[in-house]
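This part of the workshop introduces the protein records we will be handling. To make this concrete, we reproduce a full record directly below:
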Amino acid sequence: MNTEEAKDLLKRYNTGECTEAEKTLVESSFLQYNEDEIDISEKRIKKIGEEIYGNLPIPKNVSLKINLWRAIGAIAAISLLTVGAWNFFERFTMLPVTTMANDVSPGGNKATVTLSNGRTIGLSDTKNGITVKGNNLAYFDGTTIDNDNGNIGVQILTVPKGGQYQIQLSDGTKVWMNACSSLKYPTSFASNKERNVELQGEAYFEVTPDKAKPFIIKSHSQTVRVLGTHFNINDYQDEETSITTLVEGSVKVANQSLQPIILKPRQQSVVVGNSIKVQDADLETTLAWKNGRLEFKEADIKAILKQVARWYDIDVVYRGKISNRTYNGSISRSSNLSVLLNILAYSDIHFTIEKRDNSTSKLIVTP
């Protein structure tokens, strides 16, 4: 890749015109230097160059503040090194991505719905969502799934590891479901004073306003009450925290032990045991999964691989003492697992993927 080709690629990345393959190239090229909000001196830049490629032509008295949380931020900063930067970029993007044995493909549209009569239906992986209208169940494109034998009752949408799916409830509320999650809901809210649903895992809600009928989401550690708003709930049972992030509107978060709190837009509540705190939300990171990204900020390897295990449908096994170093980064959720693992491997963490007889792979992590 010459200088002009590199410039053209960066321009198209910045304007969102890259293909998925080109996005992955740019992001994988810069992710390993993703040290958020730190000053990188001339000495540090020179050391990086020596470790990876040998000496680079670095101008004197250069001090850059590189935020590599977004790859384009890194590109803009590094471009201050003029000719040397493009030489760096050319060499860096030409690094081969190691092909891992037993590479793992990303997740996709995958879910089941359990009808009120107890029957479970596997949903099509060529569709991305379903609509509930009374006892009628259909895909977004209008294709009928089932009428639940004419019953008005409770259904459960279950999204397994390696899956994602959407649902529009009978009141028009839209829900995006992440992997390892389930939503229990009535097929109609007409006869109820409240719109009650139960969530396990993670989901993003766009609740249809109805002042007469509050919308209430119950999860294993909290209850969220709203009238009409957009928000995300992350409440996996294998996580220590339960996080509710408000995008717009207002929500009330409570549990049996805590005084209810009301969130404002761009705030999130964090419930840990019998304590709750409110903090500013990083919406880009929180909603990355919904927007097709695997994104992490100041996360250690175990936190990252929890997300990875859910989306790539793998089991993770740690052997030896793993560094508690934290990382910042973002890749497309459509990337194979090897793209992320090759990047993380620059930090002297080693990965081996073992295929099992069933469809689930095992990821072995060693120092």
Observations:
- Residues 3-14 form the longest helix (12 residues).
- Residues 70 and 226 are 33 Å apart (CA to CA).
